[in-house]
Amino acid sequence: MLIIGIAGGTGCGKTTVVNQILNELPDGEVGVISQDSYYKDTTHLTKEERTNINFDHPRSIDFDLLTTHLKDLRNNTPIQQPVYSFIDHNRTGDTLLTKPRKVMIVEGILILTNPELRALFDIKIFVHADTDERLIRRLKRDISERGRDVNEVLTRYQTTLKPMHDQFIEPMKQYADIIIPNNKYNTVAIDIVRTIINERL
Ligand SMILES: Nc1ncnc2c1ncn2[C@@H]1O[C@H](COP(=O)(O)OP(=O)(O)O)[C@@H](O)[C@H]1O
Ligand SMILES: Nc1ccn([C@@H]2O[C@H](COP(=O)(O)O)[C@@H](O)[C@H]2O)c(=O)n1
């Protein structure tokens, strides 16, 4: 199994890059795990307490479960990937049966911060987009897809998102094998990654 980790700040285009990579590859040959599915279970908290969680700090992620699941997949064992709701700030209780594939992609803002998880990646990719570009994309996406308003996104950006990005996410570039510039759609980089994957299929 080839395991590819794709990191980068919020709004840099990780999900879009993954979808572009999957396009034109044979259906079902490449599996995807999102770090977002592994936000810690917050059922014991009130809605207000959940809203106040710092979702950009590594401690918000259940790295133990994510690492265990990736090792299971590597050992050819299917996993039940949790399903996460950005509206409720919690796992939904549903799971998604995820089967081992020849190639697995793991994507998320913090996936390179955990040494044990990082060591499982054969290829580490960091997607880069400038800060202003990422904020604009995040604003538009969170309002249209994640039930947020302008004030909420900007407050979160100032209080946690930007400081956490500078402290935990940007420094992870040092571990990247490939950095994809993604201020604009980067078809050349996508083709290169797809070629690497095709060699393993
Ligand atoms: N290269 C790009 N140029 C313009 N918009 C982009 C680009 N990549 C992604 N987007 C848009 O930016 C938003 C955030 O992208 P997404 O892939 O969800 O980022 P991430 O998963 O890194 O948070 C989406 O609305 C997406 O369509
Ligand atoms: N309940 C939550 C959980 C996370 N976030 C934000 O999601 C961002 C990571 O996801 P991307 O798709 O943007 O990589 C992260 O910056 C968290 O702030 C949230 O808003 N609500």
Automatic annotation (TrEMBL):
Family matches, as Pfam families: PRK (PF00485)
Main location: cytoplasm
Subcellular location: Cytoplasm
Nucleotide-binding as UniProt keyword: yes
GO molecular function, one term: ATP binding
Transport recorded as keyword: no
GO cellular component: cytoplasm
Biological process (GO), any one: CTP salvage
Pathway: Pyrimidine metabolism; UMP biosynthesis via salvage pathway; UMP from uridine: step 1/1; Pyrimidine metabolism; CTP biosynthesis via salvage pathway; CTP from cytidine: step 1/3
Domain Phosphoribulokinase/uridine kinase: 3-188
Top-level taxonomic group: Bacteria
Catalytic activity entry: uridine + ATP = UMP + ADP + H(+); cytidine + ATP = CMP + ADP + H(+)
Keywords from the named record: ATP-binding, Cytoplasm, Kinase, Nucleotide-binding, Transferase
EC code: 2.7.1.48
NCBIfam families for the chain: PRK05480.1, udk
Family recorded in the similarity comment: Belongs to the uridine kinase family.
Name assigned to this protein: Uridine kinase
Source organism: Snuella sedimenti
Gene: udk
